[in-house]
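User: I'm writing a short methods note and want a consistent example. For BNR/Asp-box repeat domain protein, I'll paste the sequence; you return only the structure tokens, no commentary, since I'll be parsing the reply automatically.
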Amino acid sequence: MSTLYALTGNDVVLLQESSRSWRAEVLLRDVGAQCIALDPHDARRLVVGTFDRGLLLSEDAGRSWRQATGLPAQRILSVAISSSRVVGGRGVIFAGAEPSALYWSDDNGSSWQEARSLRELPSAASWSFPPRPWTSHVRAIAVSPHDPNLILVGIELGGVLRSTDGGVTWADQRPGCYLDCHALLLHPAAPNLVYEAAGGGVAVSRDAGDTWRAEDEGIDRRYVWALASSPDDPAIWFVSAAPGPREAHGPGPHRDAVPIRVGEANARIFRRVADQPWRPVEGLPDPLPSMPYALLIPPGEPRMLYVGFRDGRLWRGRELGSIWEELPVRLDSVLVLAAALA
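Assistant:
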């Protein structure tokens, strides 16, 4: 039976499947939850980034929480826990903030170091987030499961940046990346393969994020948001896309602070196998009236694709999206999905 964490933009919800149905339990309420990461070395350890309340940590699978201390930023829009960079048996925590900055903690959130050189890159002066043009943020963090020194971050809006020394120094906007980065994924089964989902399309790197190439053939909607891949098969990928940000997120200047009014997203989920063109998945409404904010293929269920929608619905596609079912769960919104680790 499956166990998932869902973030609504406000709450953190535990979703547990039983033999009869699904149970939803709110673990954190009204905290502005934006992102979540689980420690690959400890299934009970997780961190949640919030819109204005910093970083929250749990060591008992979300039953109790504490505030991270010493973190300068309060608006945390991306988090990651490294599986390859481990101190004291725990993965190092990374937190991406607004205004754009990256921090890490190797003492379980008690103190933090900043990747100061990231903010000193030549392109930093041009980073800008359209709904709040005076700022930008670290929207995505990808830490390599193979190399503890390899870190990629995606700036919304500023492109993909790369460090090969654990975050001390950074290479500026990588050639060929999209600037409006929404998601990054370093594939666990292919050390040099990375995907970027962005406003503009999909980019792929085959040299661990150093150089990129747009690979959009078959995608007829270019505002790409979420991505997922089968953890044991790097040839199979999924992305969600809408015609533009208004269709995806609806009206209003502050789309990060959900909930906001749901309209017609005119969205699709696309599937790619190897180097073939992207194709829309079948078996779902076409087009989708609500934006698929979250795509998840759990490590323990490598043939199952979960989709969380902006309107709070959840769907599950067996055999990687061949057979679909709507789950009997309805939340305010589903911003992020994460799988509980065994």
